[in-house]
């Protein structure tokens, strides 16, 4: 199976009709009127990014005299129609697209989005992005992230940490843990008081993210590079995976996680934190704004997973410039505006995680704490991506195998073996 075939397996809904792009070159503005920027993105108007980009549109129009023709698309619309539309004159000049090998990497490998390396040099965007943020913006000719060629620019980030219900901790006479041993002591203490401490979901992504975080707690950057970038074979019986798999099973056995976790969805887990049922939730910064709005009956905080240098996370989605963009130069100007401190501050003060904000511009206390945690992870080069990224369809594999583990249908060794076999098969053409 070729690299392109592997990518197609991960984005089966994408049509591959008309992938040939004879004569298309990134940055070519031929056919554009120079006065209109056609922009697609799928962020809601009330989201941190939606608010920031709406302001960026105003600034762009004032400064350039050009008009932004914005079309709000859903994530699914862009995913399903990208390969059809981007090879036509209907392609936008700039669009938001998901990062990763099977998404932005696929479009890069097939020539549907432009190499924007010259623009990165011209505007100095690389100076604003930490190395682990750059990884998801740069791809090889085969579409594997971490390459040398820039195909996109992120202007926000995301990460997975631990949410704590401070009122529940105070009521239980407990302190927020700063080490992993203290974290386990807290879990034990809640169980002794009849509380299932961890909000979790085995039917969707949270459980797999906890499994990967446990592996990361025992890992170094070389493990991440092997797992995510295929630099060396992953040892599925090694200390990282073995610890994660065995520990996750222990969490269920010890009552840290509910016995019925295999049927619980992410929304249910989040709501169990919001309503105060579960005092701890290991999940992403994408919940932060919602918790600010809805988890209002108690005080809460969020921090990185205790005593782990590495954390799940990455850049946010990318601004990409289609190879058929009529006004690529306008696209670059708009990207640059979204990287300005004043636009980054809008992201940061509305529950998002900016990548280039001035700390003094973040006036919301909770947002400042979130960004401080994220910046600490960046300073440690700690962003380690997500467990399902390496192989097409591996998300479903993780869900299924970890469900088998937590229900007792299979032990930790069998789970690790099954995961390794599916990983190796899915990544064979990437390595």
Report on the architecture of this protein.
- This protein is α/β, with parallel strands linked by helices.
- It has two domains: 37-156 and 316-357, D-Maltodextrin-Binding Protein, domain 2 (3-Layer(aba) Sandwich), CATH 3.40.190.10; 159-313 and 385-426, Periplasmic binding protein-like II (D-Maltodextrin-Binding Protein, domain 2).
- It has helices spanning 3-10, 48-64, 75-85, 104-109, 117-123, 131-134, 166-172, 180-192, 205-216, 221-229, 239-253, 266-274, 288-294, 328-338, 341-348, 365-379, 394-406, 412-427, and strands at 36-41, 67-72, 94-97, 138-139, 149-150, 157-165, 198-199, 280-284, 300-303, 313-315, 318-320.
- It starts with a helix and ends with a helix.
- This is Raffinose/stachyose/melibiose transport system substrate-binding protein.
Percent range for β-strand residues: 5-15%
Mean pLDDT: 90
The Rg value, from CA coordinates, equals 22 Å
Kindly report the CATH topology of the largest domain.
D-Maltodextrin-Binding Protein, domain 2
Q: State the secondary-structure class.
A: alpha/beta
The total domain count is 2
Distance between the termini: 12 Å
Q: Strand tally, please?
A: 11
Q: What is the C-level CATH assignment of the largest domain?
A: Alpha Beta
Summarize the main sheet: 5 strands, mixed
Count of helices? 18
Described by the principal axes of the CA atoms, the overall outline is globular
Order of helices and strands: HEHEHEHHHEEEHHEHHHHEHEEEHHHHH
Task: Tell me the CATH architecture of the largest domain.
Answer: 3-Layer(aba) Sandwich
The low-confidence runs, each spanning 5 or more residues with pLDDT under 50, are 1-31
Helix coverage percent: 40-55%
Going by CATH, the homologous superfamily of the largest domain would be: Periplasmic binding protein-like II
């Amino acid at each position: 199976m070729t690299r392109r075939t592997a990518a197609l397996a991960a984005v089966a809904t994408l049509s591959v009709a008309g992938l040939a792009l004879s004569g298309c070159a990134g940055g070519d503005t031929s056919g554009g009127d120079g006065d209109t920027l056609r922009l697609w993105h799928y962020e809601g108007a009330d989201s941190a990014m939606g608010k920031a980009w709406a302001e960026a549109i105003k600034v762009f129009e004032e400064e350039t005299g050009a008009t932004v023709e914005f079309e709000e698309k859903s994530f699914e619309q862009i995913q399903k129609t990208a390969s059809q539309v981007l090879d036509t004159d209907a392609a936008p000049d700039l669009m938001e697209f998901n990062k990763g090998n099977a998404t932005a990497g696929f479009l890069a490998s097939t020539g549907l989005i432009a190499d924007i390396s010259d623009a990165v040099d011209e505007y100095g965007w690389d100076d604003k992005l930490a190395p682990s943020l750059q990884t998801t913006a740069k791809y090889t000719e085969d579409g594997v992230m971490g390459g040398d060629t820039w195909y996109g620019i992120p202007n926000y980030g995301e990460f997975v940490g631990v949410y704590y219900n401070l009122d529940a901790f105070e009521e239980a006479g407990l302190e927020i843990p700063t080490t992993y041993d203290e974290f386990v002591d807290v879990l034990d203490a809640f169980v002794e008081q009849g509380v299932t401490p961890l909000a979790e979901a085995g039917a969707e992504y949270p459980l797999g993210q906890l499994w990967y975080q446990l592996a990361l707690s025992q890992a170094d950057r070389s493990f991440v590079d092997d797992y995510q970038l295929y630099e060396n074979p992953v040892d599925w019986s090694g200390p990282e995976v073995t610890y994660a798999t065995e520990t996750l099973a222990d969490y269920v056995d010890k009552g840290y996680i509910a016995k019925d976790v295999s049927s619980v969805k992410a929304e249910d887990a989040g709501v169990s934190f919001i309503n105060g049922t579960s005092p701890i939730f290991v999940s992403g910064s994408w919940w932060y704004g919602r918790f600010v709005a809805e988890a209002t009956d108690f005080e809460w905080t969020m921090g990185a997973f205790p005593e782990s240098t590495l954390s799940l996370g990455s850049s946010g989605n990318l601004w990409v410039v289609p190879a058929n963009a009529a006004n690529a130069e306008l696209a670059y100007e708009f990207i640059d505006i979204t990287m300005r401190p004043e636009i980054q501050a809008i992201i940061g003060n509305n529950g998002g995680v900016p990548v280039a904000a001035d700390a003094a511009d973040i006036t919301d206390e909770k947002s400042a704490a979130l960004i401080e945690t994220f910046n600490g992870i960046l300073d440690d080069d700690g962003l380690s991506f997500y467990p399902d990224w390496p192989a097409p369809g591996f998300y479903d594999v993780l869900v299924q195998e970890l469900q088998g583990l937590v229900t007792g249908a299979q032990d930790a060794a069998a789970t690790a073996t099954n995961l390794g076999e599916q990983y190796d098969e899915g990544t064979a053409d990437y390595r």
